[in-house]
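Hey L., structure's done. Input below.
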Amino acid sequence: MEASTQNPIPVAVLLSIAAIFLYLHFTNGSGLTRLFLAAALVLSAIVLLLPSFPLRLPAFMDTLPKIQLGLDLQGGTHLLLEVKLQDAVNTALKRRGDDLTRALSDNKLAPAAITQNADGSLRIALKQPGERSAFLDLAEKSFPDFVLSTADSGAGGPAYTATFRPTDAITISNNAMDQALETIRNRIDQLGVRETAVQREGDSDILVQLPGIQDPERAKELIGKTAVLQFKLIDDKANLADAQKNGVPPGDELLSGPVAAGGAPQYLVESPVLMQGDVVTDARVRPGGRLEGPYVQVTLDRRGADVFAALTAQNVGRHLAIVLDNTVYSAPVIKEAIPGGDVQITGNFSFEDAHELAIVLRSGALPAPVDIIEERTVGPSLGRDSIRQGEMSFIVGAVAVLVFMAVYYSGAGILADCGLTLNILLLVCVMAALQATLTLPGIAGIVLTLGMSVDANVLVNERMREELRAGKSPREAVKIGYERAWSAIRDSNISTFVAGLILFQFGTGPVKGFAVTLCVGVLTGVFSCFVVTRAWYDHKIAMRRLNTISV
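Output:
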């Protein structure tokens, strides 16, 4: 998934205008000032929406956020993957069993028979009964993540069953999900598809949406491959500019770094692979000192520790490239020989950069099997038909509502129509600012929002009618009408907003698209159809021109 490059300035301007408007509304500020702010809000919203339409615009507007179309509107491939997290926990537990075997040997204890049970737990059978206390001391000191319980020893020495502590198992599962997400994103990026969605769904599922991709087999093949993590040396003797201009020297290759705001940096890397990523057992972010930022602590297995000690001793002062899927994520300087398998990667890292690098280092391979549990392909023609049908339903519904309000409530209905139009404009503008994905259920949510906004205006207008029939002046009718309608409008919109939040929290796919537009529409509807329309009446009252109300 590409990082957002949107320009936050227009969004901030939009929010600032709305905040000032609300402040003036609740402090009885000038109605004319609020009307000018409403006009500024409309202009800002239109500018913010322009990049979402196929128009030729100045280059600086390309950085503005845009509304994205979902698969049901654009067509493409939808995949729901399940990561077998328990397999990742079992693999990590088996690796810890290998560490325990080495620890017993280092402490001159008899090697234990360590096997993995069907449920993933380890069975540890000691050969010497007299080493029970020494084993338990070693486990408590060096393996605090183990939970040991006595097992049936049979005819041999004492036996134990080992599992991870619940907190450690959860940490391993979360790391496995992070690794799977990063690895799958790397594979998907090779398709060159814009606006892809690779996100976590629930505890163990990953949602992959590829707009415009009509060949799911290609996507599944890429996802199923294992990402390759390699350690190589930067060629410090050759000139990068010459290599870019005249070609890469024999034995070298030109690789790029991750795409950033200034483009992707390039590196001239020696082709031989010094070490593969399968030797990395763990990578975590550690806080730095006062004068340096966070760094990444990398742990290698025994074979990797020996190889890394040798290559660092032979290449002190050179840059070591950390390459994942032919992308150079870091190129730290080797300051000294590093034995023992504990490696510190330092640099000018922010915490987010260090966290990303740690995930990359752990992402040499998918940490657990991944199964495709749901697959859908939406054709582009179906997407175009959905767009036309969605547009038609919205246009017909909106026109019918606007005409009814204008005919039934006369001047007050026309004012309500202005509020409804502003509501839809602000709703779509907020969707663009959030870079939300517009789906067919999302269009249904917009139509529903239009209906709820009409309900708010109907309540206000009916209350004003009642006060006028009771003999109240237009000024009193406006004040009492809005006050008495507010409680009903507030309660109905709060309940709808809460329902939308529940749908967003527990729903998936199209349900979330509906919930987003519903929740945003509730907020913009109350603002535009209750707060903004009131500014017109307040202005007329302040100018002493509200002699009658056409309602």
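The CA atoms of residues 17 and 30 lie 15 Å apart. DSSP finds 14 helices and 19 strands in the chain.

-- N.
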